[in-house]
Every structure is written in structure tokens, then in C-alpha cells.
Specification:
Elements (H helix, E strand, L loop, with lengths): L8 H9 L4 H11 L6 E5 L5 H9 L5 E6 L2 H13 L6 E5 L12 E7 L8 H11 E20 L4 H22 L9 H7 L3 E11 L11 H15 L4 H9 L4 H20 L10 E12 L5 H9 L3
Parallel strand pairs: 1-2, 1-4, 2-3, 4-5
Antiparallel strand pairs: 5-7, 6-7
Length: 310
Amino acid sequence: MKMKYKWTPERLERRGRYLWSPELITVLYQHLGVKPGIVAVDVGCGTGFFTRIVAKGMQNHGRIIGVDVDKKLLVAAQEIAQRESLSSRVEFKKGNAYNLPLPNDFADVVVCHTLLYIPGKPMKAINEMVRVAKVGGRVAAVESDYGGCVIYDPFDKDYVELAYKFNRAVIGTFKRLYGADLTIGSKLPSLFLKAGLVEISAQAYLLPTRPPTWDNRYSIEELVDYYKNSISELSAWSETEKKVMEEYGVSRSEFDKYQFKTIKRIKNWIKNPLKMRNNGSISARCFFVVVGKKQQTSRLSTLHRELVKP
């Protein structure tokens, strides 16, 4: 039986806050077809980070429903939406990605953000998203692919090589322990074709896995807060995870070295925050934005009609 990976509301919000820049959010709206007056659904919404992004693109006219199986995350999502004065446009429902609590042909846009890598049956989740989309509506998935990453440090070549090795081992480790497919992003077009979607488009973006310290869009105070909180996450690897990482090529001594160097660097930044601006290191990962349209004669629609025949 696979282990279950736990996300806290705080960690989900912190991850999302620095992922999509305002410039790329505008591009996302174009890909997804976000505009005033639409009805949208965010599947596996968590704390509603992506739900709120879509809601803001509706410019006070439209409706989006966020669906998640975790009640604690939904409570947090509702609270944050209220704080950001989005309650009139945003609604949250408890539900499973395999059995969405919504009718057929309901939404203009059905999207998920970093969801499909988690469930063991991504095709089943996509088919359910297609069911809920209107004919001619868009089905979209935004998923990362750990197979495509860029890591650079101008001061420590050995650390960079170790970081790449660490990244490769994480892919196998999370698949083994949690059933998570961290390379799902590049598989989305083929999955969308299988679901009977048409007019499929795919865009890939390299996004930072953490806020770049040299980027002046982020204040020193924001960076210190982010990296201070990241220390506990870097230190939270279980013995089981470390053991499986060894099986995928990262020895215990290499793991400890990578962890020690990363945490030491962060602590030095926190102690001397202005030094962060002089560090030109980069850590980015590939994110795929894949969109398809539902057609009347899709295989899923045909199957549904067969199932509901008297």
C-alpha cells in the first residue's frame, strides 16, 4: 500500500505564492480561456491558490468552484477567499477527482493545477473533468515534470551535480512510496488525446522552484520569511524516504551533504540578508500547460450515452 503525502495549508500557499509571476498569469488566462462571465471548476484545489488566480481573471463577472477531498484545506481555502474579497465569485465543495460533485456539461473551463501527478489513475480524473466540461469547453491541466529542470550555482559546481542527482532520485522515490508521477507533465498531451479532447495545445515553462534571491520583485523581508520556513521542510525527510533515495542512487552521505549545504546556505542568508542579492543561483523546473476542447462526439460522451440508455 502506498504512503500518503501530506500537504499543510501553509506549505501549499507558500509554494503557490512565488510560482506564477503576474506576467505569466496573463498568459495563463489566454491558454485557459479565462474571461468575464465564464463558469469554471478547479479540481484538487487545495487551499484555493489557483482557484483565486482564475477568479481574479473573471473581473467580478463569473463563477468558479474549487473541489478537494481534504476538508481542512477547504476550510483554509474559504478563509483566504473571504480575506481577498472573492467569496461572491468562489465556491468550494468537498469531492473526489474521480467523482466530482457536479453535473454533466457544467463548466466552460475545467482545470487542475499540480493534481494529476498524485492520483494513481490520472486518466480516470481527466475523463471526469471532460464529463463536467461543456461541449466546446476547455479542459486544462497545469503539471510539472521533474525530468526537465535547470540548476546552476556560480560558486559550487559539486553542489550542482549533486542537486541534479538528487532530483533524479526524487522521481523514483516518490513513485515508489507515494505512487506520485513527477514526470506527468510531458505525458499530458497523450492523455488528453486518449480522453477524446480536440484542438490540444501544450506550452512548457521553466518556473523557479523557490523565489530567486536576486529577483528584485521580492523584498528582502519576503525572501527571509520564505527561506526561514523552508528549513523545516528540508529537515523533514523521513528515514523511509532516505532509504529509498539510496536505492535510486543517492547515498546517505550524499543526502546528508546536500541537505547540510542547502540548510547552511539558507541560514547564512537569514543571518546576513543582504548577501542574498549577490547570489545568482537558479533552480527551475518545467511546467506544462496543456489545454483541450470537449467535442460532442468524444469517446467519453459516447460511453456516457450508452451507460444512461434505458
